[in-house]
User: Which sequence fits this backbone?
């Protein structure tokens, strides 16, 4: 046995043996922060993120536990892909990973949000757990070499058993009774947007030898949900808990004039809590709280406010009244050549403006959170959050306490589709305020109208696109100016209403709104002159609202890229028509990247595409006009192509999407069945967005209240969905798959409407009234 | 005091009888699979079977359930075992075919709507053991007080899961 304090270098990580632990015990492969590593974990995190045991625990019984700061909002990745990735790098069976701990601020190491599961922001396919597992494997090999007396390069691992030189040992035996530390390098800030990142380059298992990745393992959370065993956030109860309903202001700029009374005889256990413009109605019984809140709401008086342009004037307001000058104008990373001169010299020109509405996450269950503020000042929030660490910091900021006093526990809940806020979804801060006031745990459940009217929206946007064709019908110049109000409003709305501290809004009176990034990765490298610009302005109504509220925006599924890809792809389809070219071939002809060309070629085979220029030369038959449309996207390392076939009934303006085909090439497909389900879900959400979704608002606030005033897709209206997964292991990374699909549907459907009718489509949603108007134009 | 039958068991209810069944089940009886989605009979997240018919627990006062049989997801395995007259030992480890199909097809995304989806599927398949795709779509769209809504877009997966559940139920019927 080697000396006790020896430190062994493991590819930049450090393995040390600190003596022995008697009796049972899991592997503790632990680590310390390197001098150049990240800041130490916040004090209430019981795990040291620099310790491998914080991420992965290998038990003496050969079971494995993994921890991640990310939560699950229906992607399933932490229960499927993460298990597969860890099992693969460690060479253990998928089933050996028996527990996944996620997104509890005191029990998970890395923070970060519910996005970019399979890679860093650049889609490099290096989730933290992949590297952590790779370090662990090397450390385990080193331990096995020592124990077996066999050189490391003579050892191999299969199913958690290390063997070589005629000897074998299981991982569990290697770590049993040991006190080992593996120090891994990390970087970043645990409460930051991205959380901590594991650094260094431990050797990764060659893709060619993958056994676990690429198979359709089932999602364990699905079993517990389907058998009613899941502990949903909605099911969490605490002793002495009170139920609350909020009475939100009458408008997005109203201040409280007087609080309404309620019938004390009828609601004997009800209390009304007022803090600034925050009004909560609380009772031990949930139904009492609901009824009393209705009565209080009906009698509460608010100041009037009319600071919004109203839906009918939205784009006039954005074009001619909004200030686009104060924010930085961003330029596309791929801009090249001299688009202005090439445009001037073009043989044929096309220009169009496209408008996209405000949309809602509209989770099927409105926000709910349970907070418990203890007399000693410790705050625990039980919720369904997309960024538990960020929420923790916001709660601390609101209360003027340090983050170590706040614990956020995350449970399953209704999906949001991106961040509907910066970790908070609406009720968390309100629950904390009420619990602090009452000294008891308080459960805040938003009603459907609270969600429609007080959650953040995906911002409206408009884009001006110009395309110049040369004499041969190729694109000589492409110019795009994308306009979108600021997003990422992370302020918890309850704190805003109560007048408590929050982080800054995205752009306040003294500071220009943050810029509009060019989110849509450029894929048409064959165009010699291209110029994209992103313009931003304040959130509508924010500066004018006495609450500093207005129409607050936040990221929703494929954020920003949706708003820029729709105009780009629809304009490409129209330019193809102007060139007399087929829309798929036209895209292939302007692309250089082989991965993009091959998804388009595959799409042509799989989708029943008719190769021809638009519009469709076939006359309407049986009272129907038919069309096809295509779109492409590059997002998070994945190439996407989508085609759809639609039918339009001119008499009614009804648009039926009959079939959608999507080709997805993420490089390595980690789990085919899960990816297929994600893509189908994304596509159907995209059909919903394309056909129906638009937040109705007037001069005072959002007028949508429910599923009738914010309609979404119903089952009878879904198209046939065909998902084609293209596995290309040689790419070497895992591209993302939970986003993008929703954004692909819209430009493909709009292009198909153009193909069917010959009428240029300039906005979403494609409701019958708009389609009828197009046909009459 | 009122009493209702929930998943085969007689349960006393203290709440006033105008309380919607949803809050009685979730808060008083600890039967938590029905979820609050809208409270307006517009989404189906709260659905339960009342004497085999899908109703919206969020707008159904508990008084309407008196003397009737309420079935939730928790009670689906026992409902199936009773219908198939399975011996207790077998019944214990048996899921309802709808649940088996939902797992096999990996149907839920966030899963929050799926309580109502499985309740609707069970109602449909008890009446129409071998539905066509059009019948399945109609069941989830027009047969109840509102369409059953899924914000995550799991409709394609639901369609496949109902087909599989139907096949599983037919198979068990023939043995
Ligand atoms: S919660 Fe009952 S139908 Fe929506
Ligand atoms: S699975 Fe999320 S709402 Fe249906």
Assistant:
């Amino acid at each position: 046995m080697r000396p006790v304090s020896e430190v062994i270098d493991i590819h930049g990580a450090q393995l040390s043996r600190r003596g022995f632990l008697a009796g049972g015990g899991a592997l503790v492969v632990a680590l310390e922060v390197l001098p150049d590593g990240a800041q130490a974990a916040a004090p209430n995190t019981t795990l040291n993120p620099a310790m491998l045991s914080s991420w992965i625990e290998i038990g003496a019984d050969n079971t494995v536990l993994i921890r991640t700061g990310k939560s699950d909002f229906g992607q399933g990745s932490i229960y499927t892909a993460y298990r597969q990735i860890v099992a693969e790098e460690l060479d253990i069976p998928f089933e050996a990973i028996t527990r996944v701990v996620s997104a509890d601020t005191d029990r998970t190491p890395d923070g970060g949000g519910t996005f970019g599961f399979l890679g860093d922001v650049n889609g490099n396919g290096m989730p933290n757990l992949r590297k952590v597992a790779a370090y662990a494997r090397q450390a385990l090999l080193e331990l096995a070499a020592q124990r077996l007396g066999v050189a490391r390069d003579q050892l191999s691992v299969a199913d958690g058993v290390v063997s070589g030189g005629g000897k074998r040992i299981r991982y569990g035996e290697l770590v049993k009774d040991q006190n080992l530390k593996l120090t891994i390098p990390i970087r970043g800030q645990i409460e930051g947007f991205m959380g901590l990142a594991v650094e260094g380059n431990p050797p990764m298992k060659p893709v060619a030898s993958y056994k676990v990745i690429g198979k359709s393992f089932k999602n364990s959370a699905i079993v517990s949900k389907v058998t009613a065993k899941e502990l949903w956030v909605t099911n969490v109860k605490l002793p002495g808990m009170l139920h609350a309903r909020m009475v939100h202001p009458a408008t997005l700029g109203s201040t409280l004039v007087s609080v309404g009374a309620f019938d004390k005889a009828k609601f004997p256990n009800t209390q009304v809590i007022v803090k600034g413009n925050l009004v909560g109605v609380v009772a031990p019984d949930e139904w009492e709280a609901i009824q009393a809140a209705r009565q209080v709401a009906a009698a509460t008086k608010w100041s009037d406010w009319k600071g919004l342009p109203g839906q009918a004037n939205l784009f006039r307001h954005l074009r001619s009244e909004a200030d686009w000058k104060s924010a930085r104008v961003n330029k596309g990373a791929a801009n090249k050549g001299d688009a202005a001169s090439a445009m001037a010299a073009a043989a044929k020109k096309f220009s169009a403006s496209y408008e996209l509405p405000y949309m809602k996450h509209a989770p099927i269950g409105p926000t709910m959170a349970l907070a418990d503020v203890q007399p000693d000042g410790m705050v625990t929030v039980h919720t369904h959050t997309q960024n538990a660490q960020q929420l923790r910091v916001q709660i601390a900021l609101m209360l003027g306490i340090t983050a170590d006093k706040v614990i956020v526990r995350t449970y399953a809940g209704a999906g949001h589709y991106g961040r509907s806020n910066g970790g908070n979804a609406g009720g968390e801060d309100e629950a904390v305020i009420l619990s602090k006031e009452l000294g008891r745990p308080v459960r805040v459940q938003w009603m459907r109208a609270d969600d429609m009217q007080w959650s953040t929206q995906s911002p409206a946007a408009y884009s001006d696109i110009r395309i110049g064709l040369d004499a041969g019908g190729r694109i000589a110049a492409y110019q795009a100016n994308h306009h979108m109000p600021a997003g990422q409003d992370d302020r918890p709305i309850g704190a805003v209403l109560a007048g408590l501290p929050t982080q800054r809004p995205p752009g306040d009176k003294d500071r220009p709104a943050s810029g509009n990034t060019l989110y849509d990765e450029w894929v048409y490298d064959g165009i010699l002159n291209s110029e994209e610009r992103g313009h931003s302005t304040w959130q509508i109504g924010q500066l004018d609202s006495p609450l500093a509220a207005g129409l607050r925006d936040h990221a929703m599924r494929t954020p920003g890229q949706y708003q820029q890809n729709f105009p780009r792809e629809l304009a490409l389809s129209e330019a193809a028509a102007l060139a007399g070219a087929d829309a798929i071939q036209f895209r292939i002809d302007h692309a250089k990247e082989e991965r993009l060309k091959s998804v388009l070629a595959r799409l042509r085979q799989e989708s029943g595409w008719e190769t021809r220029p638009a519009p469709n030369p076939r006359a309407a038959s049986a009272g129907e006009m038919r069309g096809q449309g295509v779109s492409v996207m590059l997002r998070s390392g994945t190439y996407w192509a989508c085609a759809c076939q639609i039918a339009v009934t001119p008499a009614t303006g009804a648009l039926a999407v009959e079939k959608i085909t999507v080709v997805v090439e993420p490089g390595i497909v980690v789990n085919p069945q899960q990816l297929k389900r994600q893509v189908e879900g994304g596509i159907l959400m995209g059909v919903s967005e394309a056909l129906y979704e638009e937040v109705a608002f007037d001069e005072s606030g959002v007028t949508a209240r429910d599923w009738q005033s914010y309609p979404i897709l119903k089952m009878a209206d879904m198209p046939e969905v065909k998902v084609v997964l293209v596995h290309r292991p040689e790419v070497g990374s895992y591209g993302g798959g939970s986003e993008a699909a929703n954004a692909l549907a819209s430009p493909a459907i709009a292009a198909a409407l153009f193909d069917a009718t010959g009428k240029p489509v300039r906005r979403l949603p494609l409701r019958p009234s708009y389609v009828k108007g197009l046909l009459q134009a | 005091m009122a009493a209702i039958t929930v998943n085969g068991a007689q349960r006393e209810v203290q709440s006033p009888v105008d309380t919607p069944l949803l809050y009685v089940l979730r808060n008083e009886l600890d039967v938590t699979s029905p979820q609050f989605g809208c409270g307006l009979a517009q989404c189906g997240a709260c659905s339960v079977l009342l004497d085999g018919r899908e109703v919206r627990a969020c707008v159904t006062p508990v008084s309407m359930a008196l003397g009737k049989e309420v079935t939730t997801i928790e009670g689906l395995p026992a409902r199936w075992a009773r219908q198939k007259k399975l011996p207790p030992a077998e019944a214990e480890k048996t899921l309802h075919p709808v649940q088996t199909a939902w797992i096999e097809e990996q149907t839920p995304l966030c899963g929050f709507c799926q309580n109502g989806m499985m309740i609707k599927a069970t109602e449909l398949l008890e009446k129409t053991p071998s539905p066509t795709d059009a019948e399945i779509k109609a069941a989830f769209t027009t047969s109840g007080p509102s369409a059953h809504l899924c914000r995550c877009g799991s409709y394609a997966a639901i369609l496949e899961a109902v087909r599989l559940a139907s096949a599983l139920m037919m198979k068990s019927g023939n043995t």
